[in-house]
Design brief:
single chain; about 290 residues; alpha/beta; 7-stranded mixed β-sheet; 9 helices; 7 strands; about 30% helix
Length: about 290
């Protein structure tokens, strides 16, 4: 049965562009990041640091740094996202119905968000250490039309889901709802929010859907390179209060990322490694 939340996503309903094979960005590896100045390195690895000076003393900054891995943890996660002869990373298959989905037992994470939120670009940045992995991106909103499965060795699977909103596929509900409700190995859903646009009505509907299904999820703010610091900080404060008072299965800390400047990409890799059971933090998150 179609839930009210997913039905609303469909009614608000994202085109296919040329495939783009990524080239490794110079900031995609910690080795190159280590060559930056300390301030730039911290900004890259822990992007909330750039906002700290603008936060009122009355605000507890620790609430935005609950997941704060050290360099050893980040290096462990980077190895997980780096292919080798014994650790293959690549596209596996696509599906439009549950009976088309691969039967996998390894942990799985999925990425979902509004059309043109930068979802495929973010996944491309996460996989930048494996440039042979083809992640299709397009300047046209609504590029992703199927559930696309990417396997990271035997460690976990990452699923790129169709966007909701403008030009969403007509069978969006039939693809997304059964997956979220029935996928037994799904350990975390990453719900993307445009940093410049903030939480939109459709994003609230997506949150409602995750809450209704009782699945663990986390909010990821994208395109922070295009967002003024004041706007970004206001959004983070809003999201924290929203998570605290209006959600029950959302991780308390929203993540902020730039797929262009690679800010927050290393941290997000580490969080994925952690929630999929592939990384025990060297130091407990504060």
């Amino acid at each position: 049965m179609m839930s009210v939340s997913t039905g609303m996503l469909l009614r608000f309903q994202t085109g296919i562009g040329a495939a783009s094979i990524r080239q490794a960005h110079h900031l995609s590896s910690l080795r190159h990041a280590a060559q930056l100045s300390e301030r730039k390195r911290k900004s890259l690895l822990y992007p909330f640091n750039d906002l700290e000076a603008h936060v009122s003393r009355q605000v507890d900054q620790q609430r935005f740094q609950l997941f704060q891995p050290n360099m050893e943890d980040l290096e462990h996660a980077e190895r997980l996202f780096t292919p080798s002869p014994k650790h293959h990373i690549g596209y596996s298959t696509s599906a439009v119905r549950t009976d088309h989905m691969p039967e996998l037992t390894q942990p799985e994470v999925c990425f979902i968000g509004r059309s043109n939120v930068g979802k495929s670009s973010l996944i491309r940045a996460l996989f930048s250490l494996a440039p042979e992995v083809e992640v299709r991106v397009s300047k046209t909103a609504g590029h992703t039309k199927k559930l696309n499965f990417f396997t990271v060795g035997k460690a976990f699977t990452l699923v790129d889901m169709p966007g909701y909103g403008h030009r969403a596929p007509e069978d969006f509900v039939d693809m997304v709802e059964p997956y979220l409700q029935e996928r037994q190995n799904l350990v975390r859903t990453f719900l993307l929010v445009d940093g410049g646009a903030g939480m939109q009505k459709l994003d609230l509907v997506a949150v409602e859907m995750c809450e209704e299904f009782g699945i663990p999820y986390v909010l990821v703010v994208t395109k922070i390179d295009r967002t003024r610091q004041g706007v970004l900080l206001a959004l983070l404060l809003q999201l924290h209060d929203f998570i605290k008072h209006q959600t029950s299965t959302c991780f308390a800390q929203p993540f902020i990322v730039s797929s262009v400047q690679y800010s927050g990409i290393h941290l997000l890799r580490c969080f994925i490694a952690h929630v999929t059971g592939n990384l025990q933090l060297s130091s407990k998150p504060t």
